[in-house]
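We emphasize that the prediction below concerns an isolated chain of 354 residues; any contacts that depend on oligomerization or on bound cofactors are therefore not represented. The input was used exactly as deposited, without trimming of termini.
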Amino acid sequence: MEYTIVLLPGDGIGPEVVGQAVRVLKFVSQSSGAVFHFDEHKIGGSSIDQFGSALTDETLAICQKADAVMLGAVGGPKWDNPDGKVRPEQGLLALRKGLGVFANLRPVKVHPDLISSSPLKPEKLAGVDMIVVRELTGGLYFGQPKGRETVNGHERAVDTLIYTDDEIRRVVQLAFRLAQKRKQKVTSVDKANVLESSRLWRKVTAEVAAEFPEVSLENMLVDTAAMRLVTSPASFDIVVTENMFGDILTDEASVLVGSMGMLPSASLGDQNAGLYEPIHGSAPDIAGRGIANPIGTILSAALLLRYSLHMTHEAARIEKAVEQTISAGLRTTDLGGSLSSQKMTDEILARMKQ
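Result of the prediction step, given as a token string:
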């Protein structure tokens, strides 16, 4: 089989970690017989610098035809102008919308040997293994009207939070299908005591729950969920929520595993193609030093193999090698170690070859 994987390294440490994930994918190609064609393009600040756009129409069209897309990270101080008409993040939002990826899966699993890297007490972290399913193409980030204006001499900013029942239903259904294969429990996070959009979210979620009688549903307000993530994180299994809540809660959840550099994500739609990226940002403070943790991106490559290319054995092989590397006490600087990005990947590849 032959597959086309579009690489969008982006900005900051993006090219460094994507490069390490490509090394792993090339080994998978050699050992499995599958042929991967890598096609690299620009997104974010690097695309603004060259083309004046955070994502060109040509690049989006190429991504839409690919079997999968791997993204690094976008943004940095060079382009950090809140009033700028063109911002790196616009490329990311346009990519998600253009690919039709409406569900962002973010696994959060605490490795026993990394418990000491988390600020939480060890007893709080035992058994933490959840997937947060974040709706990705609706809500505040995409709602219209949006903008700023001057009214009676005062500047006013407007963002609109909009969801339709079908947008909610498709992502909640995906969450329930995932729950069927795990602990058969879904926690739906909203703000139904205040927001009309959340009341619709809760109504549709109840309708979906009726289609899955074997799966239990727990409704939870977002402020309670934020608190529970640090007081009893092991009580969660599948968490489904809207766009902005999911964005915030998964960054909070990254603290559980000790570093944002550890967490992968998969953004999926109705087609096989998906978008895969670590949840961390471009980390311009360490860019170019070769010390960024590549594990989140390497695990994102494993998700790419599992969900877009259906190479489940090879995906599990990567995940097992990462676990073995961590168990061996090998760490990058964010986890208190001294390994470079390349050396950490060397160690993971060594275990894949065993």
